[in-house]
Structure prediction request, 306 residues.
Amino acid sequence: MIHKKIAFIGSVGSGKTTLIKNLSNTETINTDVKSSIDIGKDLTTVGMDYGEIRIDEDLKLGLYGVPGQRKFSFMWDFVKQGLWAVVILIKNNSTESIKELEYLLDYFAIKQDTPCLIGITHSDLIKGETSKKHIKNILNKRNLVLPIYSINANLKENAELIFRTLILLEETNNGT
Amino acid sequence: MEHEELKFLIGKTVRQAEYVNKINLSSADGFTYHSFSTDGQSEDDKLSAVSSSLTSLSNAATSQLMNTELISTVIESADGNMVLLKTRYRGKDAVLCFISGPQLIVGKARYYAKKLAEAISTIPADQSAV
Ligand SMILES: Nc1nc2c(ncn2[C@@H]2O[C@H](COP(=O)(O)OP(=O)(O)OP(=O)(O)O)[C@@H](O)[C@H]2O)c(=O)[nH]1
Ligand SMILES: [Mg+2]
Prediction:
């Protein structure tokens, strides 16, 4: 059995916990607690989300979600070890969330050969296409070309898209 | 003064337990309410964040994997022990972190930490900060 590790990173409220809950075949490990400051929602992750996707008999994907708050970056260090792929979530039209992208690309040392994709969440609620342009600019500065999708973290249907893309990226990077 | 009753309770524990290196109270999401340290130096905010993460993970392990309730998280090291306890402070979920030197056996550390956590949870919520 091969176990591949995928990290879900992104700013507070970008939808990491929600997406992992919707993608996982198993009940996820949840470490959300009540936020004591106003972050636009009640709960926030302080430990780690964990879920799994069984692709087939030989392949299992481990889904690791980190807290978005930077003060928990020691959890990022833990999740960073031995990663197969990274999913970066960005809240549509949120300057803060887009800004965090630069920090995360550096922190997780995302290179062109890292299987990595960007999901713009909340686009069902918040309209506007400008996020994509800003994200592309940030990637351009780093000579990165990464797939960018609009996704709804509340929908299960995104699972297929995300994993097929990551597997495809890996194959492309390996030249197969 | 802010957190006066809390400071008093911590001071009492420090005198009773001796060998205390650090006592830190933070919100469940890792913001420091008050931190006491014998060596004066502090990385309070980091300790608060780590306490919050560890407690949430212990909580997930007990409630979601062992089907029971978390009592405490104890970390033993060559230089002493760390006891983490969930408590309430002024009506809000909080985490108490108690770090003592190797002279204090782990059972005693747990005893003093628990006693303090219980006392903290009785501080009334309406004792508002100034
Ligand atoms: N409509 C809509 N709601 C979303 C979407 N993505 C996330 N949400 C909602 O936004 C909130 C995001 O919360 P989380 O999943 O906790 O975000 P997170 O990234 O885990 O945040 P932290 O753990 O605090 O860093 C939840 O209430 C979700 O239901 C989306 O694409 N569309
Ligand atoms: Mg989360």
